[in-house]
Amino acid sequence: MNLIANKNIFLIFSGMMVVLACLAIVVFGLRSGIDLKGGTQWDVSITSTSTIAITENIIHSTLKKVVPTAEVVVKQLNDGSFSLRLPEVNEKDHQLYSVALSKIGRVEEKSFSSIGPIIGSELRRKAMWAIVFVMLGISIYVAWAFRKVSDPIRSWKYGAVTLLTLLHDVIIPTGLLAILGRFKGIEIDTNFIVALLVVMGFSVHDTIVVFDRIRENLLIRRGQKIDLGLVVNQSVRETFTRSINTSLTLILVLIALIVVGPSSLFYFVLTLLVGTIFGTYSSIFVASPLLYLWGRRGT
Q1: More confident site: 34 or 134
Q2: pTM of the model
Q3: Is residue 1 included in any domain, yes or no?
Q4: What is the CATH number of the domain that holds 105?
Q5: Which of 24, 89, 108, 121 could be stapled to 175 by a disulfide with Cβ–Cβ 3.0 to 4.6 Å?
């Protein structure tokens, strides 16, 4: 496999994916869940006490009668229960809603959580800073870890390339969630933030494995005339099987969770799956070519 000879193909593909993801984010935006913007998540199971089946429309109209101005979203889950999305609800209104629902059937409350807009805004701000600090921290650590190898690639370039690949691995799943939010009404929440952090950790692990082999091969040739392209190609070949096998085991587990796992975790697992696939791709087909192109300049 001559990675360097085909580097433009791999980098153009990644560039197109990032551009499309950025366009999706800008055009569609991201729908924030209640834990990032505030609101109420209420999961209930309602058993009809008459011959009329309980539907989303019946529940929606029942709740709107209590507070006509409130924004109400009702979604039936796979197990037959209902997920209700409401503005922030205090305990008094909670009881009013419960009484209204009890008139159409027997209500079993599964979960109820309400978050104020101030707390939601604070969580959103902290989540964004968490992602930024993690990316910067990882990049600085990589630059420090490779400080003893400065010829022909300066150590800070390892960190800078790592930062670019992490941005690549974060932007693409985020773009997917923007598209799903537009057409499927999917909202991002703290689970999405956790998924991105997991993706970054897995991706950087793979990237460091490749970079470490490049470093070892450069140290072996220290003092000799070095063909950086040959060194990068050799390093990728030596780590390719390990990277693919490691990622494949995780991908198979994630696919299994998507197929048979709980519906509540579907989009969390989907984010992990997409991030893992593109994180593995970037570690091999993006990070290494970028390191070669930057290292070849010798500055």
Answers
A1: 134
A2: 0.82
A3: no
A4: 3.30.70.260
A5: 24
